[in-house]
Amino acid sequence: MYRSAVRRDLTRRGLLLLPVVVFLTAFFIVPLIQVLMLSVSDPDWGVENYTYLFSDSFFLSALGSTFLTALSVTVACLLLGYPLAYVVARSEGSFAASALLLVGLSLWISFLVRTYAWMVILGNRGPVLAAMRALGIEGGELLFTRFASSLGMVHALLPLMVMTLFSVMKKIDPAYERAACGLGATPWAAFCKVFLPLSAPAVINGCTLVFITCLGFYVMPVLLGGPSEQMIAGLIGQQIEELLNFGEAAAMSVVLLAASLTVYAIYSRLFGLDRLWGESR
Description:
CATH superfamily of the largest domain: MetI-like
Order of helices and strands: HHHHHHHHHHHHH
Helix content: over 70%
Distance between the termini: 37 Å
Number of strands: 0
Number of domains: 2
């Protein structure tokens, strides 16, 4: 009787998981296997594509630029997003709701629309350079630079950081800080010694999500950045669209995937998936 009930339970779970397994197999696992096969079979079987990539100084420079840009964007999102998430988490009523709505709206706007908006803002006839000229400041070109692409990516990924931080900060009871102040701590000391450690899982998780997402960004680096400062995703698109070099593009994709999985594995090893939403281990 017990074994029959267990079998029925396993059957129900299997039927519930079947649509997800079929979907992931058809649209993720099979294409990924095709990319892996293409990276070692085009134009000939072997690892020549990988050997060439890791001996190409331009690719290595683009790989380093990708990690450097992802790191700078992550730090900028954290510095801007942490105070905003803290204020919203500690606010009540219409202000908190309105702030979350604005953050959500900025997340829902298309990346392409935001990219073209930044092209207008930072262009030669845009308001930024016009304001600099009015103030007598002679500035260089802002568009098609690493600064422009990084600024666009910060704007795109800041809502993700804020939402991740807010989801944990909202669970931190304000009574902890009040208790610290009641024991003689200043508000700043209570924040540093009580609130900040409790929000550390959100910081780690938000930085990991933003960093991994930034590694694979394509639209903004291509349209806002300069041709000499392309990230790996831009090089992959160039190999496919302009040079029709599918084998090398597949190898670049595998390298980018390996880099993303490495970052994820380090996060999982050091902190564990149980801290994804701030739960203690």
